[in-house]
Write a structure and sequence with these properties.
This protein has 248 residues and is mainly alpha-helical. It contains ten helices and four strands.
Length: 248
């Protein structure tokens, strides 16, 4: 630059004076996530002796992904429009009820992106659609929402999430619902969940509840039968495998 004689070129410098190591680490990770990223190992080496929990919390507030924790999870925990506001079980949630494991929401979001692949690079739409789906579910199950019960367990949340999204995918392909229209999307999900009586989640089940592919499939199979029972005006528990109702 000094050899360029046509004009004097300005040199712009951004500097942090007397910045703590924590501040330097924060700015380093932000810059390298917003511009050219560095390897995960380098980032971990830099923060090895720092309070990682405090750093992660600050990065989330700044809208920067750190490790497997994204700003989308932060928004699901924080926003008034999120049915899971202050319900996530992680250190970032300092004022709510730590009820729903973060892995539960991560798995639910992953399934939504798997079924609607165009959401893979659209976090804003992903967040809006996910929250719209679960606002309708929360509305339908308001009496058992945000309580330490069977319904709020990881395997049930993900089984119901997959059951709903499978039907939304079909409705989307037929042009029945526009998933980008939150109001219509919520109505569609509410119509689906109204076919799934709350009693299903409240009675005793014939199996031990555990987070496994097999149990999730059993729940989804019963949800399908449950919806058919309600459409056909049969007893809601007819031909279900999981509930123990004392009825033949």
């Amino acid at each position: 630059m000094s050899d360029y004689e046509a004009e004097n070129l300005p040199v712009l410098v951004v500097s942090l004076f007397n910045a703590s190591v924590e501040e330097q680490a924060f700015q380093f990770i932000v810059i390298n996530n917003k511009a050219v990223k560095v390897t995960t190992n380098n980032v971990k080496a830099i923060i090895a002796n720092l309070n990682e929990e405090e750093l992660q919390s600050r990065l989330l507030r700044a809208g920067v992904k750190y490790g497997n924790t994204s700003p989308t999870l932060r928004d699901i925990n924080d926003l008034d429009t999120s049915p899971f506001q202050h319900l996530l079980d992680w250190p970032y949630n300092k004022q709510g009820i730590r009820l729903v494991p973060v892995a539960t929401i991560e798995q639910a979001l992953k399934y939504l992106k798997t079924m609607f692949t165009f959401l893979e690079e659209d976090d804003d739409s992903l967040l809006e659609i996910f929250c719209a789906i679960w606002r309708a579910i929360k509305q339908n199950y308001s009496d058992i929402w945000a309580e330490d019960n069977k319904f709020m367990k990881k395997v049930n949340i993900n089984a119901l999430n997959e059951f709903i999204i499978d039907r939304l995918k079909f409705a989307w392909e037929l042009g029945i619902v526009d998933i980008f229209d939150s109001e219509r999307l919520e109505k569609q999900v509410l119509d689906i969940t109204k076919l799934l009586p709350q009693e299903f989640w409240q009675v005793e089940w014939s199996i031990k509840l555990q987070d496994s592919t097999n149990v999730r499939k059993q729940i989804k199979d019963d949800l399908s039968t449950l919806a058919d029972n309600c459409r056909l005006r049969r007893n809601w528990y007819q031909d279900l495998q999981l509930p123990i109702t004392g009825e033949e």
